[in-house]
Inverse folding.
């Protein structure tokens, strides 16, 4: 079964008088449990693809089914709920909230889904343990290394057990050692059956993924299974 | 939003405010002062109107009080030798008021004479008040022992007296004052009653003679029949000092109290009396006090006072509100990225609005709480050092709580709206 099904998806931006075609009639299916890397040079439409897949933006034309639901025409509130419930974001710069500690950061997506504090605290603790930060649940982001912060971000992305994990250059800000720890963690999540979509320049990630999709000029240039 | 979410939102808000302690504190100052002045204003206003009400009950709203005053100095002929300086209200004045207006309820004439009173070896400086039996109808005196002066005392010009509770213990230590004699000058007066005088507070100090009494160390009052006073005391009093050496002052009556039958006729009666007295007196040696007018005047000045304080409060609340809005706008733009993150993690626009309004509300309510505390303390000091009665009411506290909440909502709305409507993609890229 396909958790992501994109049909004829286009996105155009109006830049002054010029119409910019960021994505042109893209068709894409991603099966449950797949580990996909989306690659391509800058300006190829990677970011636009990420924003659309992450329900941060709406397509100009075409349809997007996430977990079987058509999300192309949902309003802002519905999209917010989809983001919180079905998508786990992992960002290049971790994007933890500075005034919250590890456990509170992991709780945040559950908070917005209306999960009671006591329940979300339990789940957040076990997620922190799973990513190897069980000892540091009361630490604030600035007290953690980049690799540790990214692991908190991954735990946070898993909080609501989303349909897809959507990562944007997850190792971009990390040194090789921490970067490879993060990739190992992603491998492990993949082994557990998570659907992972990574947008990246990093060929290392491309090699680890099951499938690499190369974008160029807003279209799929190559779609390879490793 | 459920209960957990509200709790969580408040927790988040507190954390964010705690991150910028100094900023949060300074931001709330405007609200603190605003709320503080609202409460102080209401407390002082409430106290003032209570004071007026009290004074009204004490003076009586249908009374007209006419008092002898010393005319301006330039009208007194000065010379090296002694002069007799006669001024003030006379028995004739009292009589003619009585004659011209028969339906005027009570006319109380009062003569006040400072004197030394003796009982055995004990001595007290007192104010001898020559007055009439119906004095108690217009003045706040209550009989605690014996009786007050009666008509027969007046007719017979009897040497009897009534002492107040301030004088009694000075002259009688272990004895019952009733039936004992007090010596004043060459005369002795039999004590027939003890009265309690109302403790005068508030603005009427100036015309019940209280200030003058305390200043000259007078212990209290001794009341004797007016007729007795007329026959036993001369109309002269001797005062020493001044550039001219000796002055002899002649005052017949110090105070006449007129009780008008109805409320509506007070001002007209005052005008009639004024016409009458103007004809008889060349010098401005009397003054008329109409409690009703005082009430009106006080009410007017209270209103002005309230308007002034109210404007100060309104302006400082407005400035405080604008300050809060300014800081919240700065906070929103500073936390653009955080807003983007929250949106990506599932926060709806409404969640963001609620979060920022909650923070603004926390700021203003904290400011309001501090302001309420200060506002409750300041009137206390005003009362202690400013000799003004103040009353802090629960309504005032609730009102200022409401005002701080309203400011939080009003001035928090725009920043929150702005935060909620930021594009999540752009906010996430914001550095």
């Amino acid at each position: 079964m396909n958790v992501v099904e994109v049909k004829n998806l286009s996105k155009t931006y109006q830049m002054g008088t010029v119409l910019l075609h960021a994505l042109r009639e893209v068709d894409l299916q991603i099966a449950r449990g797949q580990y996909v890397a989306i690659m391509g040079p800058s300006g190829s439409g990677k970011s636009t693809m990420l924003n659309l897949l992450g329900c941060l933006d709406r397509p100009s034309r075409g349809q997007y089914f996430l977990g079987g639901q058509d999300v192309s025409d949902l309003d802002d509130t519905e999209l917010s709920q989809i983001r919180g419930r079905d998508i786990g974001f992992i960002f290049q710069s971790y994007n933890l909230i500075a005034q919250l500690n590890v456990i509170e950061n992991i709780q945040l997506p559950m908070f917005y889904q209306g999960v009671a504090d006591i329940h979300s605290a339990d789940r957040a603790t076990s997620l922190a343990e799973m990513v190897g930060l069980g000892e540091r649940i009361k630490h604030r982001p600035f007290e953690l290394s980049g690799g540790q912060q990214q692991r908190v971000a991954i735990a946070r992305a898993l909080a609501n057990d989303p349909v897809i994990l959507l990562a944007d250059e997850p190792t971009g800000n990390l040194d090789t050692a921490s970067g490879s720890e993060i990739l190992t963690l992603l491998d492990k999540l993949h082994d557990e059956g998570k659907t992972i979509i990574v947008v990246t320049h990093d060929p290392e990630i491309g090699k680890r993924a099951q499938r690499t999709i190369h974008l160029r000029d807003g279209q799929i240039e190559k779609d390879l299974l490793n | 939003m459920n209960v957990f979410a509200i709790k969580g939102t408040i927790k988040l808000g507190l954390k964010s405010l705690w991150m910028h302690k100094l900023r949060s504190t300074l931001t709330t100052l405007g609200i603190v002062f605003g709320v503080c002045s609202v409460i102080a204003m209401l407390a002082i206003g409430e106290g003032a109107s209570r004071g007026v009400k009290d004074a009204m009950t004490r003076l009586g709203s249908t009374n007209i009080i006419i008092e002898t005053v010393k005319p301006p100095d330039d009208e007194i002929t000065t010379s090296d030798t002694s002069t007799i300086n006669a001024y003030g209200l006379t028995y004739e004045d009292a009589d003619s008021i009585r004659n011209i207006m028969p339906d005027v309820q009570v006319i109380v004439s009062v003569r006040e004479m400072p004197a030394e009173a003796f009982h055995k070896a004990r001595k007290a400086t007192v104010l001898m008040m020559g007055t009439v039996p119906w004095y108690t109808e217009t003045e706040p005196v209550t009989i605690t022992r014996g009786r007050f002066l009666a008509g027969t005392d007046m007719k017979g010009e009897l040497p009897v007296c009534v002492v107040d509770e301030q004088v009694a213990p000075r002259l009688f230590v272990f004895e019952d004052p009733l039936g004992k004699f007090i010596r004043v000058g060459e005369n002795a007066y039999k004590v027939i009653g003890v009265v309690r005088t109302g403790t005068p507070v508030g603005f009427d100090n100036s015309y019940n003679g209280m200030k003058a009494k305390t200043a000259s160390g007078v212990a209290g009052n001794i009341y004797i029949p007016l007729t007795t006073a007329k026959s036993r005391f001369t109309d002269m009093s001797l005062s020493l000092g001044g550039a001219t050496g000796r002055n002899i002052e002649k005052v017949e009556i110090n105070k006449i109290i007129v009780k008008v039958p109805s409320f509506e006729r007070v001002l007209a009666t005052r005008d009639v009396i004024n016409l009458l007295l103007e004809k008889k007196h060349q010098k401005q040696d009397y003054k008329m006090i109409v409690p009703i007018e005082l009430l009106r005047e006080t009410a007017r000045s209270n209103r002005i006072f309230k308007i002034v304080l109210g404007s100060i409060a309104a302006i400082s609340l407005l400035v405080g509100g604008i300050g809060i809005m300014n800081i919240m706008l700065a906070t929103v733009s500073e936390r653009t990225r955080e807003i983007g993150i929250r949106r990506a993690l599932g926060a709806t626009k409404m969640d963001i609005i609620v979060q920022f309004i909650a923070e603004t509300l926390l700021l203003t309510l904290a400011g309001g709480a501090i302001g309420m505390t200060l506002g409750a303390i300041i009137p206390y000091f005003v009362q202690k050092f400013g000799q003004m009665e103040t009353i802090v009411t629960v309504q005032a506290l609730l009102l200022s709580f409401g005002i701080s909440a309203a400011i939080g909502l009003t001035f928090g709305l725009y920043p929150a709206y702005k935060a909620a409507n930021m594009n999540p993609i752009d906010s996430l890229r914001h550095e």
